[in-house]
Specification:
This protein is α+β, with helices and mostly antiparallel strands and about 300 residues long. It is built from 10 helices and 11 strands. The protein folds into 4 domains: about 60 residues, Winged helix-like DNA-binding domain superfamily/Winged helix DNA-binding domain (Arc Repressor Mutant, subunit A), CATH 1.10.10; about 35 residues, no CATH class; about 80 residues, Roll (SH3 type barrels); about 80 residues, no CATH class. The strands form 3 sheets. It has a 5-stranded antiparallel beta sheet. α2 crosses α3 and α4 packs antiparallel against α5. The chain is globular, with a radius of gyration of 21 Å. About 20% of the residues are buried.
């Protein structure tokens, strides 16, 4: 059993390092429930088996993204269209079933499948569904917030999952707010005997592509042109943006057009990849970025980046 736990930690570490942002050994140790010394040994092992683990100037680690061939995958929409054509025009072909199976293996659809078959995630979903059924509070143990870069335990009253089971809407006791929590960032769920106390305050709203509800009744339009690297990083970090991205075959670029309820995630993403993104709109979003840059400069966190608009 001990060796199985070690193997599980190594696989979990590979998964964590593939997802932006880069992470410190301290945070990694907390997320996979081990020591920093062990994390360093696991990183050496992952390098030995062929992954390229990178360390940035802040001593944070990540696995290099394989950009080559990334644009060869079908999008969900493209795969669905091809399937529909096969079912109508080639319904009598003996090759039809084999093509359909290969089609969805070579598309972004397998991203969702990988998420659902993850054993730990399935256990977490089952525990939370049980808590919703019996209206019991639960504790999200060692929840990693990408927004605050913080790991902590969260006491919540779970309300409802999104359709793809990637996000959970819940009422957080400490902040007294309805929030969305990523299932991928939950290390474990601990059931409690405490019944719901804030049912009257529960509210479920469909989140935006970054997992935020429209609490303040404000939306911000974002229109960006991404190069291949920016596209790969964005879709790996935020799976729900995929339907909002369109490929420009002529220029080999990717256009992201959507409305967000909270500008923080997309702002952090844009400021981290300014040389690989062109801001097409909106003017309101561009002004928000300028204000954010001014605040960062004031806090001595960055050196005046250039915001470019086509």
């Amino acid at each position: 059993m001990l060796n199985q736990h070690k193997i599980l930690r190594v696989f979990k570490l590979i998964s964590l390092l593939k997802k932006a942002p880069a992470k410190s050994t301290r945070n990694i140790a907390l997320m996979i429930d081990t020591t920093e010394r062990t994390v360093y040994r696991y990183i050496d092992l992952i390098n030995e088996i062929g992954f390229e683990v990178r360390k940035d100037k802040n001593n944070k680690y990540s696995i290099k993204h394989d950009d080559e061939g990334a644009n060869e995958c079908f999008t969900i929409e493209e795969a669905s269209l091809i399937k529909e054509l096969l079912l109508t025009s080639a319904k009598n072909s003996v090759l039809k079933e084999g093509i359909i199976k290969k089609l969805f293996v070579k598309s972004e659809m397998d991203m969702e499948a990988n998420h659902l078959i993850n054993a730990n995630n399935s256990k977490i979903v089952a525990q939370i569904n049980e808590a919703i059924l019996h209206q019991k509070q639960v504790v999200l143990q060692k929840y990693f917030s990408a927004n605050s870069n913080n790991i902590s335990n969260r006491v919540i009253e779970p309300i409802q999952f999104t359709n793809n089971y990637q996000m959970l809407c819940a009422y957080e006791i400490a902040s007294q707010k309805n929030k969305f929590f990523s299932v991928e960032r939950m290390s474990a769920v601990v059931p409690t005997k405490n019944s719901f106390k804030y049912t009257a305050l529960h509210r479920f709203e469909k989140p935006d592509a970054f997992g935020f509800a429209n609490i303040d009744n404000k939306k911000l339009k974002v229109d960006l042109m991404l190069n291949l690297r920016a596209y790969v990083i964005l879709k790996e970090e935020y799976h729900m943006v995929i339907p909002h991205i369109k490929l420009d075959n002529k220029n080999k670029t990717y256009r992201l057009v959507l409305e967000v309820n909270n500008p923080k995630p997309i702002t952090r993403f844009v400021l981290g990849l300014l040389d690989e993104i062109t801001i097409l709109g909106s003017e309101e979003f561009l002004n928000h970025l300028r204000n954010s840059v001014g605040q960062l400069i004031q806090n001595n966190k960055v050196i005046s980046p250039k915001l470019k608009k086509k």
